[in-house]
Amino acid sequence: MFRDRRTGVAAWCLFDWANSAFPTVIITFVFAAYFTEAVAADRVTGTSQWGYTMSLSALAVALAGPLLGAVADHAGRRKPWLAAFTALAVGATAMLWYARPGVDWALWTLLFVALANFGFEMGMVFYNAMLPELAPKDRIGRVSGWGWGLGYAGGLASLAVALVFLIQADPPPFGLDKGTAEHVRATALLVAGWFAVFSLPLFLFTPDAGPSGLAPAEALRRGIGTLIATIKNLRQHGVIAHFLLARMIYTDGLNTLFAFAGIYAAGTFGMKLDEVILLGIAINATAGLGAVLFAWVDDWIGPKRTILISLVALTVLGAAVLVAQTKTQFWVFAVMLGVFVGPAQAASRSMMARLAPPHLRTEMFGLYAFSGKATAFVGPALLAWVTAYAGSQRAGMATILVFFAAGMALLWPLPEPGR
Q1: Is 31 helix (H, G, I), strand (E, B) or coil?
Q2: Are 65 and 386 in contact (CB under 8 A)?
Q3: What CA–CA distances, in Å, run from 312 to 227, 250, 329, 337, 379?
Q4: CATH number at residue 29
Q5: Which end of the chain is least crowded, N or C, by CB within 10 Å?
Q6: Predicted structure pTM score
Q7: What are the start-end ranges of the E strands in 199-337?
């Protein structure tokens, strides 16, 4: 049966390749920097406005994900929801082409970045919920890891295309005007096209659950009722709640690591922007490699053990990064650390896929999205406070290890799914 679904599984994995262009190019490397440098009034204001926009977008996902997931469980099909949110992400990203330099375009930029990020994150709720129906239980870890690996590869490939053919091209192609930053703004069109084209195979070849036959209003009514019942009877899903709490904590550590790694590299080791970008590319490459290599480990020993191995390695290597005294040492330990970032993320998705009851899968992945966003402010806030109090970036970055250790301690007593 798995062989019969190989095309559908491959198309599902390719969606990770498609959508990863958005967080890599727009959120992390290119458009965020463009906004703070060229659109906002100044760097400090721009950084603050961008941060608030991402926080509000994440809050909207945290609130809407569980509810719409519960509605989708009663409606049956997931691809229409995924298509709608993909269209929102693609369309809003394309509108960033009009984000000209200057504060007059700041509100426009922030509005469409927020809409695009909301569409991207909400789409992941329905995308992830398709996993346990596509892969048999003994291959869920493999398929999840393949998807994460392709996602990292897609993000890096789209970034390379953006840098080589648009940002660094001299002269820029298609007569793009550098004076109005068209060569940078065109990266939004690249990402929108990339996302749209490479997501098509999923909608064409990946099977979906059948429709339930319920009218939309009835599916909405039942979805709201199911979500309320799930929250009221959370003890009946104790293992899932325990896992989501653990994931919430170690994911805060991972998110904070990605958000501040470049700042730490620049502040402590004096790395220039081009070096920081190269470091980010190297870490993403090793994270993708780790996700693929550990995909078989997940199916062999189980997702919980895979996550624990990753968290132990992240804690040890993170400590090594903090005590590194030279730029070479920092590079070596940081690149090695990246190997275990991908497996922690991919195995978390496969563990949720194994734990979620079939009739609540999308709702549970909505809660899964909630667990990744609800306390996203805690890690950066704690890091900032400790850095200011101790007067040391190293002390601030050390707080990330606390999140890894706490998440590991919470995850440890849980049973391995299916064992």
Answers
A1: helix
A2: no
A3: 34, 11, 20, 11, 19
A4: 1.20.1250.20
A5: N
A6: 0.84
A7: none
Cα–Cα distance between 35 and 40 in angstroms, integer?
6
CA distance 213 to 260: 48
Give the burial class of 358: count Cβ atoms within 10 A of its Cβ; 0-12 exposed, 13-18 middle, 19 or more buried.
Answer: exposed
* pLDDT tens-digit readout, 282-335: 888 898 999 999 988 888 898 999 999 999 999 999 999 888 888 899 899 989
Picking from 118, 145, 78, the residue whose alpha carbon sits closest to that of residue 363 is 78
Q: Is 275 contained in some domain? A: yes
Is 147 a member of any domain? Answer: yes
Residue tagged 């706490």 (tokens)? 406
d(CA 23, CA 197): 17
Residue 417 belongs to some domain of the structure:
no
Helix and strand numbers (H, E) in the chain are 18, 0
Domain count, the chain: 1
From CA 368, how far away is CA 239, in angstroms rounded? Answer: 13
| Residue ranges, the chain, pLDDT below 70 | 1-4, 76, 210-216, 223, 230-235, 259, 262-263, 273-274, 374, 418-419
Nearest alpha carbon to residue 261 among 281, 280, 284, 282 = 280
- Rounded (to 5) percent helix, strand, coil in the chain: 85, 0, 15
Residue whose C-alpha is closest to residue 251's, from 121, 344, 150, 118: 344
Reported for 10-13, long-range contacts at CB under 8 A and 24+ positions apart, including other chains, are 10/201, 10/205, 11/201, 11/202, 11/204, 11/205, 11/206, 12/127, 12/130, 12/131, 12/134, 12/143, 12/147, 12/202, 12/206, 13/143, 13/146, 13/147, 13/150
Q: Which structural domain range is residue 394 located in?
A: 3-205+212-411
The CA-CA-CA angle for residues 381, 387, 388, to 5°, reads 90
